[in-house]
Automatic annotation (TrEMBL):
Family matches, as Gene3D superfamilies: Fumarase/aspartase (C-terminal domain), Fumarase/aspartase (Central domain), Fumarase/aspartase (N-terminal domain)
Catalytic reaction equation(s): 2-(N(omega)-L-arginino)succinate = fumarate + L-arginine
GO molecular function, one term: argininosuccinate lyase activity
Coiled-coil residue spans: 120-147
Domain of life where this protein originates: Bacteria
Protein name: Argininosuccinate lyase
Transmembrane parts of this sequence: none
Keyword rRNA processing annotated: no
GO biological process: L-arginine biosynthetic process via ornithine
Gene: argH
Family note: In the N-terminal section; belongs to the lyase 1 family. Argininosuccinate lyase subfamily.
InterPro entries with a match to the protein in the record: Arg_succ_lyase_C, Argininosuccinate_lyase, Fumarase/histidase_N, Fumarate_lyase_CS, Fumarate_lyase_fam, Fumarate_lyase_N, L-Aspartase-like
Domain Argininosuccinate lyase C-terminal: 363-431
Biological classification of the source: Bacteria, Bacillati, Bacillota, Clostridia, Halanaerobiales
EC number: 4.3.2.1
């Protein structure tokens, strides 16, 4: 029954059969395997390696198999080890000995490299769309909530006032780079490995450019040993995915913090939260917690493949079959996380008053007092010192900077005047920071306009 049984005298141990098989997961490559085989069969006839009639018969057989796969009727078997042999065996069952001509000038080694590339091309395009969608949700939210002012943080300590829109656009910019990373990775995925054979190419006069054209690849690999021995393109994708998850995880962390009673900045919609089986008051932010949690598993897949590959001599080694489960799981995890995030964010309400109130404490306008003194001719270092003392006084007197009377301001410097009150109003502080990329409303509007196109 085995397609390679010729030189064997004993049948495979049952446990070995299961241990060795990849069909339990690489069945996901079925449609890509068929797509690749069709192009290969077409090329074999085009080059006169097999007859046109044989090629047509093979392609029709593969079409039928594709229909079986799509209808969920194809029976994958462990005895046939992997997706490649499952499909080839089905083909010969269907069309007889001519099916055996399909594997001319091909090895499973260049075939599997092709399948993974075809799969990944497809998935990268889908993930890019999902990233774009989430970017759009963030930009829309930024626009709708452009008037909300909140504290910006460093060390999770209130630092300077910003706009919520500024915070949301920060994530959109991160996602935009994630999108670019995927596009860049795509360029190296989009190279045809087929024609590399097991490791040393083939004697048959095949036409690799023809296959590349058929399958829409931008180029063909230039070293057969390299093409069948590397999974660096998978590693790159896992790294880009890890970076996406890292960004989603940080946003998750903020949503979790912001929905605590201590912050109380957001209300995630009920549809995206769960309750407690014992504490009736609870509404838990499970979704961001899970996305944060799943980030670790994607990092795990990246690390696993790096470690799997690090000691392998050229060219193909069976260790490389371990590239798939982590890849498939990463694709599923990143896709669902992006999708659920887009929907959850679109259903999140921001509490404008609480965010504004949080800018009142914590001296977020202290830098603006120093800048005020600088405007009046005082060197920045001296101004910093003066404001530090003023803040200390406020802490001791349990006052905000805006509570100080002019007489109190003058204790610290006689250049303080009535205009200090306007200078330290939070809106003034935010909108004065109008440098490129700053939180001023005009600048945010400009960036929104730019990013929406
Ligand atoms: N199932 C194998 C994999 O995923 C396909 C390649 C097998 N090649 C071989 N020489 N055993 O890597």
């Amino acid at each position: 029954m085995k397609l390679w049984a010729g030189r064997f005298q004993e049948s495979t141990d049952k446990l070995v059969e299961e241990f060795n098989a990849s069909i339990g997961f690489d069945y996901k490559l079925a449609k890509y395997d068929i797509e690749g085989s069709m192009a290969h069969a077409k090329m074999l006839a085009h080059c006169g390696i097999i007859s046109k009639v044989d090629s047509q018969e093979i392609i029709s057989g593969l079409e039928e198999i594709l229909a079986e796969v799509n209808a969920g009727e194809f029976e994958f078997t462990v005895e046939l080890e992997d997706i490649h042999m499952n499909i080839e065996k089905r083909l010969t069952d269907k069309i007889g000995a001519v099916g055996g001509k399909l594997h001319t000038a091909r090895s499973r080694n260049d075939q599997v490299a092709l399948d993974v590339r075809l799969y990944l091309r497809d998935q990268i395009n889908q993930i890019k769309e999902l990233v774009k969608q989430l970017e759009k949700v963030l930009l829309d939210l930024a626009e709708e909530n452009i008037d909300i002012i909140m504290p910006g943080y460093t060390h999770l300590q209130r630092a300077q006032p910003i706009r919520l829109a500024h915070h949301l656009i920060a994530y959109q910019q991160k996602l935009k780079r994630d999108y670019e990373r995927l596009s860049d990775c795509y360029k190296r995925v989009n190279i045809l490995p087929l024609g590399s054979g097991a490791l040393a190419g083939t004697k048959f006069s095949i036409d690799r450019e023809f296959v590349a054209q058929e399958l829409g690849f931008a180029g063909v690999s230039q070293n057969s040993l390299d093409a069948v021995s590397d999974r660096d393109f998978v590693i790159e994708f896992l790294a880009a995915s890890s970076t996406i998850m890292m960004h989603l995880s940080r946003l998750s962390e903020e949503l979790i913090l912001w929905s605590s009673s201590e912050f109380d900045f957001v209300e995630i919609s009920d549809a995206f939260c769960t309750g407690s089986s014992i504490m009736p008051q609870k509404k838990n932010p499970d979704i961001p917690e899970l996305v944060r949690g799943k980030t670790g598993r994607v990092y795990g897949h990246l690390t696993q493949l790096l470690v799997t590959m690090k000691g392998l001599p050229l060219a193909y080694n069976k260790d490389m079959q371990e590239d798939k489960e982590g890849l498939f799981d990463t694709v599923d995890t990143v896709k669902v996380s992006l999708e659920i995030f887009a929907r959850m964010m679109a259903n999140t309400k921001f509490k404008a008053q609480n965010m504004k109130n949080a800018t009142e404490g914590g001296f977020v306008n202290a830098t603006d007092v120093a800048d005020y003194l600088v405007d009046k001719g005082i060197p920045f270092r001296e101004a910093h010192e003066v404001v530090g003392k003023t803040v200390l006084y406020c802490i001791q007197e349990n006052k905000k900077l805006s509570d100080l009377s002019l007489a109190e301001w003058k204790i610290f410097s006689d250049v303080f005047d009535e205009d200090i009150y306007h200078a330290i109003a939070v809106e003034t502080c935010v909108d004065a920071r109008d440098t490129i990329g700053g939180p001023a409303i005009e600048e945010i509007k400009r960036v929104l306009e730019q990013e929406k196109n």
